[in-house]
Amino acid sequence: MTNNFIVTLKKNTPDVETKKFVDSVHRAGGSILHEFDIIKGYTIKLPDALHLNKLKEKHNDVIENVEEDKEVHTN
């Protein structure tokens, strides 16, 4: 089962580190679904949560926040 996540990188993340993060997503069998313009962040698709944990460990110094991309409803 694949999961989608929104990953926000720290504002001061150098481009070289951003590229390393994107490359890691692809090496983990994932893909970039969307790149945000206003913030340094991505919507990514990963095969499973285990791959997310590995990404978070490897890029902990540049990742600001990770949350599951899910539909939100208002009442």
From TrEMBL:
Protein's recorded name: Protease B inhibitor 2
Coiled coil: none
Top-level taxon in the UniProt lineage: Eukaryota
Similarity section: Belongs to the protease inhibitor I9 family.
Source organism (scientific name): Saccharomyces uvarum
